[in-house]
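**Protein of interest**
===
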Amino acid sequence: MKTKTKHPVTGFTLQILAASLVLLINAMPAIADQDHAENRYIVSPDDNYRGLSYNVWMAEWFRWVYSLPTVHHPLFDTADCSTGQADDVWFIGGSFEGKRAVIRDCTVPHGTALFLSLANASWDNEACDEVNKNVIKKTNFTETELRARAQKDFIRGILDKKSRIIIDGQEVEGMPTNCNSTNPASCESPFRVKTPVFDYTSPALDSLLLGNGDCYIDPNHNGQPYTVTGAVGEGVHIMIKPLPIGKHTIQFGAFDSVTGLPRSRYNITVTEHGHEHERDHEHEHGKKGFD
């Protein structure tokens, strides 16, 4: 399925989904320097976290996003932020296709890292027949072709967006804050990565795959989840280290022209003992790695 996800100002652009977020690395300060207060909460994009690289965590982010029905999904504001999450790393982001700013309250257990998507895009070969819209007719793009399309959608999603991330009042360095269509290099960032090829599973009903058409209404015709193979993605993400117990603010995405602050925000409360959270989908990641 074609997916874009952009998480800037509001979140993610997902056609498939990933709010979305292009390719980068130019001359932006690396967030990884732990000596800088601005990035003290951020895992360097060059480092692994719990044994996985940023590239693999991004694939896990997409897997989580696709695993939930839109009627019970944190990024559609139809479920609590804990839905489908594992204990050690939770996934957060903006709104579908980045069409609106979001303000969310989220309570997380102490010791939980947060993987935030600023913007991204993903592609696979899922599609409906152009004539009979109720029939799945997959495309046959190669991995190289899929990656080119994901990159194009990512760039389209983030161009001319002045995106920032601010955690507890401190700017995260390395974001594409001055991205413009006349200078693609201005959209680069050390946090811009590509996923490995990955598979994901979507629910039979109310899935994000419906963005492709009605052929994805119970695609297996038996009420069982549907598995997609050979997906790829590209985007800008950050891994936020476990925050101290207490209240925190994560502002992200495109910023307001008047205040200069990002319009989307998570109000995070870190609790000492955590809380009972839903496990509608037992999402395995982290120590078990990417399969």
Notes: The chain has one domain: 2-286.
